[in-house]
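Lab manual, section 2.4: Encoding a predicted structure.

Procedure: take the sequence of the chain (199 residues), apply the prediction step described in section 2.3, and record the output as structure tokens. A sample record is shown.
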Amino acid sequence: MVFVALGASSSSAQSNEAIGTPDSRACPWRDETAGLLPASLQVAPDLLPRMQVMLERSPTFRAQCRRIAEAPHLYVRVRLDMAISGRTYRAVTKICRQPSGAIVAAIDIAPFGDPAEWLAHEFEHLIEQLDGVDLRELERRRQGAWRSGHQMFETERAVRAGRLVFHEMRERGDGRFTTKDPILRVPRGQSSSERGFGP
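Recorded output:
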């Protein structure tokens, strides 16, 4: 989910292009940095080991990290947040565009279950903003975006990215969590980041 707190964004250029899927070709990356998280990320120590495994096993997550690493003026804080328990979502990203052009984002992830899908989901929301996606316009046109709360949006693109990373992790021998775990079961047509913790 994206909470859009737009500072000077009314004058920022945003495209109305259709939602795409992650494209690793769009962001060349030096091989020596391929296993590293972007320098613009400040990640909570509890999440670092899992994110390293995601880098090793998920081509989609690596492509997301490449795109984020090459974004000028992007600053992201990623942490676990106990306050999310009991909410109707598993993760949330608050994005603020500064008058200087900098984008500051705070990603909060629920501290329960495997965060792989939710991290990839929220990273895709960052990339949507880097791509200039106009969420309000997509919602107005009913083209893959909808409101999920006050100034909060959800997109098909982020749902797809999260699920793709989840499946890539499973396909590459990540037996840490399975779809039999209640936390990871997702009702048809709903992303796990939208679900609450209730039964």
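Check your result against the sample. The beta strands are 2-6, 41-43, 74-80, 91-97, 103-109, 145-149, 152-155.
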